[in-house]
Design a protein that fits this description.
The protein has helices at residues 20-51, 56-72, 78-102; strands at 2-7, 10-15. The protein is mainly alpha-helical. A two-stranded antiparallel ribbon has the order 1-2.
Length: 109
């Protein structure tokens, strides 16, 4: 297999073996999966924190799902994923508590 790269007017051709490309692709895919899981952990934390203030009926379950998927995929930011999971659960607990006081599905200040 030949790869041709063009840089500032010069052309270089390099030969690669067939086994090197799948290994590189596997490493790149693994890095991308970990980076995606890290992003999910951070998003779960932010949505869980935001859900304590507004739209906890929507943001709580989303934070729980994102944190669970991030943990399942093996995120490097496990602490943030667990915080997002806890905050998502806290969102739902706050919603239930305010529903008991107001007898509605939403709450206001």
């Amino acid at each position: 297999m030949e790869l041709t790269t063009r840089t500032t007017g010069t052309t270089r051709t390099a030969r690669t073996t067939g086994s090197a490309r799948p290994a590189e692709a596997a490493r790149a895919t693994r890095r991308t999966a970990v980076r995606d899981a890290d992003g999910m952990a951070v998003a779960a934390f932010i949505l869980g924190l935001l859900g304590l203030l507004v739209l906890n009926v929507f943001l709580g379950p989303i934070a729980i799902v994102l944190a669970s998927v991030a943990l399942w995929r093996g995120t490097a930011r496990r602490g943030r994923a667990f915080l997002g999971l806890g905050l998502g659960v806290a969102d739902l607990v706050v919603l239930v508590a305010f529903m008991q006081f107001d007898s509605t599905v939403s709450w206001s200040f």
